[in-house]
Amino acid sequence: MRKIKKLLEPIKIADMEVKNRFFMSPMGNSLGERDCMAGDRIIAYFAERAKGGVGLIDVVCFYEDFGYSMPLGLSLNGAKYLPGLKRLTDAIHVYGTKVFAQLMHQGSSAPSVWLGHQAVSASEVRSGLTGEVPRALTIDEIKQTIENLAEGAYWAKEGGFDGVEAIAQGGYLINQFLSPVTNKRTDEYGGDLEGRIRFPVELIKRIRERVGPGYPISLRICGDDFMPGGNRQEDIKAIVQIMEKVGVDVINVAAGWHQCHVPLITMGVPRGHYVYLAQGIKEVVGVPVISAHRNNDPFLAEQALLDHRADMISMGRPLLADPELPNKVAEGRFKEIRMCIACNNCFPAGEMMDGLIPECAINAAVGREKERQLVPAKKRKKVIVVGAGPGGLEAARVLAIRGHKVILYEREERLGGQLNLAAIPPERGEQASLLDYFSNEMERLGVDVRMGKEASAKLLRQQKPDAIVVATGGTPIRPDIPGIDGDNVVYAAEVLEEKVELGKNVVVIGGGSVGAETGLYIARKGTITPESAVFLATKGAMDAESAIALTLRGNKKVTILEMLGRIAEDMNRSTRWTYIQSLQTQPNLEMITKAKAVRITDAGVVYNQQGEEKLIEADTVVIAVGTKPENSLVEAVKGLAKETYAVGDCVEARMIRDAIHEGYDVGRMI
Chain-wide mean pLDDT for the chain? Predict the structure, then answer.
C-alpha cells in the first residue's frame, strides 16, 4: 500500500511550528452571529476540522473600514469581540491545530446590498462581480484603511490567532491596487509597479509594527490573475519578492480573480492543476509556499511536496466533504476518505449574503455539526433499505454507523444508481469517487447488500423489518411527442452506457444538465485525448493549435434543443458557466433555446421556435427531458413496518445533494 509521509511532516512558519502540511483554505461561510461575533455554530464548524487533523486553518475575518463589513462574518473591531474569538481559537488549539485570521477587504467586490452604500476601491472601475462602480479611496482614506487592517491584525493576535493573512487574491481590494486593470490612479498609489504595490507594502509593514517580530504574516495572492491586461505569473513573481523583503512569512498561492473567465475550482479542472502556480512562486522566494485550488487527492498532494513544487497543500472543500481527511491519511485509511467531488454546492450564488448556511452535497453535517451529529441508536433495529442510489447508500451508511442491522436491496447488479451515469460525461468524472467511497463503506460497516434482487412488498413482509427506507430513484420521462417510438429514438442513459449506436447527426431533446452533459459527451466522440495532442505537437507531427483542435472536433454533429431560454438552467451557477464554456468550444455542437420539439420523423426533429416550425436533420434522436419518480413501492410498503420512509428521486426528481441529505436525515431519525 502506498504511504504518505511528507504531508504529515511539521513545518515552521516564522516562529510557529505547524504539525503537518495540511492547510484549510479560507472560505466565507455565513456561520457568524448577527452581531458578527463567533458563536457556537462557527466554533463547532472549525473545531470539527481541527479534530479531523488539519495542521493550519485560515479563518476569514474583517475589520470595518469606511462602512465595509461582512454579514454574518467575524469582526476584529475591538475588545468586545475577543471572548468569541478566544472561544474559537481555543476550540481549534485543543487539537494541536494552528489558526490564522485572514484580513478580508473585498473593495469593489462587495455588493452595495451588503454595505448599504457604494463600495470603495483603488479607482472608479466597474466591478466584474457586482456590476457596480466603486468610489476611489482618497490618500487619507488609504492610510486609514492600512491602519484599520493593522488594527484588525492586533485584535486577531489578542484573540488567540497564531498568525494573520492579507488577501491579494480573488480580485479583492489589494488586487484592485496591484492590477493595472483596476488601478488607474495617477498619485503615489498608482502608475507603475512601485506605485501600485505601495498599498500592500505599507500594509504589511504596519501589520508587523502592530503584531511584533516572529508573529506569522501570510500573503494570499493569485499566482496569475487570468485577467486580460492584468498581472500574469511573471508579474506576480516580481510582486512576491518585494513582499517577502518587507516581512511576509508565507505565501498562499491561489489562482485567478473570481470574475476571470478561466475555470478555477469546478470538476472540469484537473486535480492538482494549479500547483504549477505555487511552483513558479517557490522558485523566486525563500519563505514557505502554499498551493491552493483542486487539491482533493492526498497522493497528488504528497507528490507535489516531494517534488518541491510547494511546502503546504491547501484544501478547502475537501475538508467540508470529509473533516477527517488528514487523520484518515495519517492512519492509512485512504478508502474511507469521502473525496470532494467539486460540485460547488457549497457556493450557492448569492445565498450566503442572505444568511443561508453553506452546504456540502455529500456531507449533510456541514454548518450543522452540533445539530446533525450521529449518536448511537437507543434500540438496535432491523432496517431494510430498497435502492442503492446515493440516497439509499447514505441512509444505509448512517444507519449502520448508529448500530442498526441494515439490509440493502438493489435490483441491478451494481451499486450507485444514477451515480453510475452521472460520472460518465466530460468534466463530471469526480463523482465516480463517491461511488468508490460508498462501496467501501457498505463493506466496512457490515451492511448486508443484496444486489440483483427486486424487493417486492411480499419479500419485505416476509423479512419483518422494524423500518423500511424506500430509495428506488426515478426513471426517464417519456415526453408526449409524435414519433417518440421511432427506431431512431434513444434515451440519454442508453447513450452514456454505450448501449446504442449513434448516427452522424444527433439531436438531443432537452437542454437541462442531463441533456447538456449528454450532448457534450456525444460531441467529444471521435476526438483525440489531450495526451495524444501533446505527443503530436512535441514530436513535430503537427503544430500545437492543430493538435488541440483535434481534442475538440468529434465525428458527430450534435444539436441540443431546449424549451427554456438557457441551457443547463438547473446546474449550479458557479459550475454552469464553465460547462457552457465547454459546450461553446465544440465546433460540432449547436444549442437552440426557446425551441419545443413537436414531432420526430425519420428525417429528424421538427421544432417550433417563436411560432415557426423548422426541421433539424437527425439520424439519432436522444431524449433527455428529465426524470420522474419511481414510487410504486412507496405506497405498497406502508403498514409493513412501524416506520417507513422515502428518500431521493422516488419522492421528487432532484440532485444528488437532495438524495444524500434526505438519506442522512432518515438515518438519524430511525
Answer: 95
CA–CA separation, 33 and 378 (whole Å): 33
What gap in Å lies between CA 605 and CA 505, rounded to an integer?
A: 11
Amino acid of residue 638: K
Give, for 488, the enclosing helix (H) or strand (E): none
All domains of the chain, ordered by start, with CATH?
6-332 (3.20.20.70), 382-475+630-669 (3.40.50.720), 489-625 (3.50.50.60)
C-alpha 228: how far from chain center: 25
- What's the Cα-to-Cα distance from 494 to each of 224, 236, 514, 571, rounded to whole Å? 42, 48, 12, 22
Furthest CA-CA distance within the chain = 83
Could you give the CA distance from residue 27 to residue 567 in angstroms, rounded to a whole number?
29
C-alpha span between 365 and 374 (Å, rounded)? 9
Cell numbers 487527492 label which residue? Answer: 297
Three-class SS of residue 554?
Answer: coil
d(CA 204, CA 183): 19
Alpha helices, DSSP H only, in 402-491? Answer: 419-422, 432-444, 457-463
What is the distance, to the nearest Å, from the Cα of residue 563 to the centroid of all Cα atoms in its chain? Answer: 29
Using pLDDT thresholds of 50, 70 and 90, give the confidence band for residue 316: very high
Would you give the DSSP letter of residue 257? B
Query: Where is 596: in which H helix or E strand?
Result: strand 596-600
With beta carbons less than 8 A apart as the criterion, state whether 606 and 621 touch: no
User: What 3-state class would DSSP assign to 405?
Assistant: strand
Q: Which tens digits make up the pLDDT trace of 175-218?
A: 999 999 999 999 999 999 999 999 999 999 999 999 999 999 99
Cα gap 461→554, rounded to integer Å: 52
Tell me the pTM.
0.94
Helix, strand, or coil (residue 53): coil
Decide: 204 and 243 in contact? Cβ < 8 Å: yes
Q: What is the pLDDT of residue 354?
A: 47
- DSSP single-letter state for residue 379: S
Distance in angstroms (rounded) separating the CA atoms of residues 509 and 519: 10
What is the pLDDT at residue 356?
A: 58
d(CA 631, CA 409): 15
What lies within 8 Å, CB to CB, of 93 at 6+ separation is 50, 99, 160
CA dihedral 125, 130, 135, 139 (to 10 degrees): -80
Phi, psi for residue 607 in degrees, rounded to 5 = -130, 160
Res 325 pLDDT > 50: yes
Q: Is residue 237 classed as helix, strand or coil in its secondary structure?
A: helix
**3-class state of residue 321 by DSSP:** helix
Helix (H) or strand (E) holding 300: helix 298-306
CA atoms of 320 and 46, how far apart (whole Å): 10
CB of 567 closer than 8 Å to CB of 511: yes
Q: Are 255 and 277 a contacting pair, CB within 8 Å?
A: yes
For residue 396, pLDDT over 50 is answered with yes
Q: Between the CA atoms of 409, 437, 626 and 395, what dihedral angle is there, to the nearest 10 degrees? A: 50
Strands (E), 182-327: 217-222, 250-254, 289-291, 312-315
Rounded Cα distance, 508 and 558, in Å: 7
Helix, strand, coil share of the chain (percent; to 5): 35, 20, 45
